[in-house]
Design goal:
By secondary structure, this protein is an alpha+beta fold. The protein has 2 domains: 202 residues, no CATH class; 75 residues, no CATH class. Helices cover 27% and strands 23% of the residues. The protein contains 8 helices and 14 strands. The strands form 3 sheets. Strands 2, 3, 5, 8, 9, 10, 11 and 12 form an 8-stranded antiparallel β-sheet that branches. Strands 1-4-13-14 form a 4-stranded mixed β-sheet, sandwiched between helices. Strand 6 and strand 7 form a beta hairpin. It is globular and about 75 Å long. It starts with 7 loop residues before the first strand and ends in a 7-residue tail after the last strand.
Length: 320
């Protein structure tokens, strides 16, 4: 049985994608709104809505109306969340079956302690083609009716980038939902109270709750042992790419490494040039041609100068 390295997460992929990863030092985080599983990333939102409806008798009318904005009844996955998935299991039969239907598949072992950051597609500091009303939501009004800027839509603001385990346990899910709801209610009630003298009453959109909600998944998928990186990059025009897919043009974000040049997370939230990904090991999926597959992979790693990447093979017996 394979010895599991707790410091690694395993991104399962096919040969074509692996070649792209090694050549370009990029991993693609897809838009949550375009994921293949229609129920993916909705479990947390559905549970939050149910919890909200249970609390309605104890909420004021104003608080209820404001919370409806953040906990809508209509379920839609956020277009602003971008997800990269992996597994804590380096030799998962479930994952091999999913990725190895027609060819040999691979599991890329990534250092879970090294954050990944978005790779910028444009280097400018302002939207090159802003649409009408681009800054309409960037302003608010104080109690005297004076307009003030709340945020800069072109300002770089990136959250996420760290590996987090998906939550399957029902008790832990309930704790997360309760915490998220109480945070939202607290923010709403504070905004409804009179502002302190000389202090603007501002409460920014609480999108921070999305990461916790997006980590909740049906316990029936527990054997995947999934871990996720979820990122929210702003502005979209600077970081979001598109590729053709079954549901149209799929938005995605390219993730790469900063290679530790500057470890201050507040100063280094994105890259303008891809850095070497923290790949420590690559495992070859079940195949009767493990010797040949190992030799060719080692040769490819040599060509890219990745001499320190370990190559191993699945210990699951191949079945035709």
């Amino acid at each position: 049985m394979a010895i599991e390295d707790a410091g690694l997460v395993w991104h399962y992929t096919d040969g074509g994608a692996l070649m792209n990863i090694l050549e370009k030092n990029e991993l693609w985080a897809g838009s949550a709104a375009f994921m293949n599983d229609m129920n993916e990333l909705l479990s947390g939102s559905i549970q939050l809505r149910n919890h909200f409806e249970e609390q309605l008798p104890d909420l004021s009318k104003d608080a209820t109306q404001m919370l409806e904005k953040y906990i809508p009844e209509v379920k839609a996955r956020s277009r602003d969340s971008f997800v990269l998935s992996a597994s804590s299991d380096p030799d998962s039969l479930t994952m091999w079956r999913y990725y190895g239907r027609h060819q040999v598949s691979f599991a890329v072992g990534l250092d879970r302690n090294e954050s990944l950051v978005p790779l910028a597609r444009l280097k400018g500091e302002e939207h090159p083609n802003p649409p009408a009303g681009y800054e309409d939501d960037a302003f608010d009004y104080d109690e005297e009716g004076n307009r003030f800027r709340v945020y800069d839509p072109d300002g770089v603001f990136i959250e996420g980038g760290d590996w987090k385990p998906v939550v399957y346990d029902l008790k832990r899910q309930s704790e997360i939902i309760t915490k998220v709801f109480e945070t939202l209610r607290d923010g709403v009630e504070k905004r409804l109270t009179p502002a302190e003298e000389g202090k603007l009453r501002v409460w920014l959109f609480p999108f921070f709750m999305n990461e916790d909600l997006d980590l909740i998944k049906n316990e029936g998928f527990r054997d995947e042992r999934e871990e996720r990186i979820i990122v929210w990059p702003n502005p979209a025009w600077k970081f979001v790419f598109h590729r053709p897919g079954a549901y149209g043009l799929v938005p995605y974000v390219k993730l790469t490494s900063l290679q530790g040049e500057n470890i201050d997370p507040e100063e280094n939230r994105f890259a303008t040039k891809a850095g070497r990904l923290p790949i420590r090991e690559i495992r070859i999926g079940p195949t009767p041609y493990s010797v040949e597959a190992t030799a060719s992979l080692e040769q490819l790693l040599e060509f890219h100068g990745l001499h320190d990447v370990k190559v191993t093979c699945s210990e699951i017996p191949f079945r035709q």
